[in-house]
């Protein structure tokens, strides 16, 4: 571990591929296997990114999270790491494919001189949140408008009320739906994620063609509950 990452914990706050599949239907409800495969790919990419950070990595999915709702679970995760003695905590999820190891390392470095680091996403949320222990107010933190388009505004108010020194990273997209993934694959056609997404779509289309060729139309709805995959 290099000096810049000492006393820094990287919190990967996410869900398992199976639970993500129940929350986000990237390929529709009828393609559970394909949805799970896609989220396993995202998780694998995130694990690779986290391993390159140089910080101590804590992977917190639904099996480690505690609390009755997202705000409490997320707050408890930060609290636990600060209680363990870490001065800085940087949190990421698994839904921002453009978050690079260089940008993550930049956030870790900047948090040495700042109270807070924000990585804004284009939907009003954040793809990265870094904070040192002196900036953590449990009650105010838990009461932020988590999982809403108002989160960035809420975090800016949090910063202003406590007179914190913070830094903004570049704005990036995160992936919350099949539409988001499809748009990402159009804008970034040669990325590994886009190629993987298109391969799954192609596989689904082949499966549907087989059904159309060999199963009478009146019986197709009973097979897998299939619907057409998203267009790419």
UniProtKB/TrEMBL annotation:
**Pfam families named in the record:** DUF2064 (PF09837)
Q: Which InterPro entries match?
A: Nucleotide-diphossugar_trans, Trfase_1_rSAM/seldom-assoc
Listed PANTHER family: GLYCOSYLTRANSFERASE (PTHR36529:SF1), SLL1095 PROTEIN (PTHR36529)
Recorded protein name is DUF2064 domain-containing protein
Q: What is the lineage of its organism?
A: Bacteria, Pseudomonadati, Bacteroidota, Flavobacteriia, Flavobacteriales
